[in-house]
Amino acid sequence: MVPLRENNATDKSEKEVLFNIEKITWDFLHHLLRGEIYDIRIHHTSQEVLSKLTGDYVWCANENESVINCWKRLKSYTRLWIIMEVIHASLKSGSRLTIRGIYYMLKPHPMFLGLDYSCIPEYINIISSMLLCKRRNLGIIASPKGLVCGPLCVYSSISTISNREQQEIVFNGNKNEILVSDDLIQCLYDGTYILDISQANYILVVEKESIYHILKESYDILCCLRAILVCARGMPDINTRIFLHKLSLVKDNSTPILGIFDYNPGGARIFFTYRGGSKGLINEAFQYGIII
Questions:
Q1: How far apart are CA 40 and CA 77, in angstroms?
Q2: What is the mean pLDDT of the chain?
């Protein structure tokens, strides 16, 4: 595995996240009544410059750097609280959000007029850093993107049958294509599902969906290689990266992970995203790195 960097983001329950949001809000109101600006501090140990958020907002790399330290950033500061309110309401109601859903929900709001879609994930990363939690703990899910097929089985761990051959098979990659959904990832985290890749010789990560389908349809090649095919259809989403990371951690697993990528800067970016994560999720980017 790629060495992981020190990171403060940890899994938290919905109750913990709600409590932390409400605590920050009460602290903010307390400072407001005293005529003070509540100076939120972000704790991160990566010591990397985070990407630009808006035209008048640039994050500094110093640890515990203040989110707001000049009047030009007040608009970004206000947006942060609005998005946090949306997340709090969603957690309270037990519903789930997507980043695209948040964007279209807030698009008509005066504070978000003209704001680019790419800025929303950055605000969410700030909030997860404030709360020292992971993005999925905020009730924000990713749309299913990753595809998997090949000699892979997903078993239910709820079964009381100890014999693996008689346990319930939830997914069988030899018979059906598996869509890497948020529910699947959550069940793997909970221990509800168990991965079995004992019949595989390789794990093959494919950048292009067209190449993935050609290999999938080539039954003779699959039988010869006995390879699990994984495709995120371009730049990998967080669920596909987590799934590959889980495959690499299967007990007694020494299955090599290979990759097919374009021989250009775009292919290199995708390759290194699989290996070390992306700036889009800097709080937990290095937790899902794999040797590929």
A1: 9
A2: 76
Phi and psi for 153 in degrees, rounded to 5? -125, 140
CA atoms within 13 A on the CB side of 16: 11
pTM: 0.66
pLDDT at 177: 85
In terms of DSSP H, where are the helices of the chain?
14-33, 74-93, 99-106, 119-131, 182-190, 209-217, 219-225, 238-248, 265-276
**In 10 A of CB 140, how many CB atoms?**
23
Q: What's the order of all strands across the beta sheet hosting 227-231?
A: 178-180, 146-149, 227-231, 202-206, 257-260
- The confidence score (pLDDT) of residue 71 equals 43
pLDDT tens profile 142-152: 778 899 988 88
Q: For residue 283, what are its two tokens? A: 């709080």
**Cα separation of 203 and 249, whole Å?**
13
Provide the 10 A C-beta neighbour count for residue 161: 11
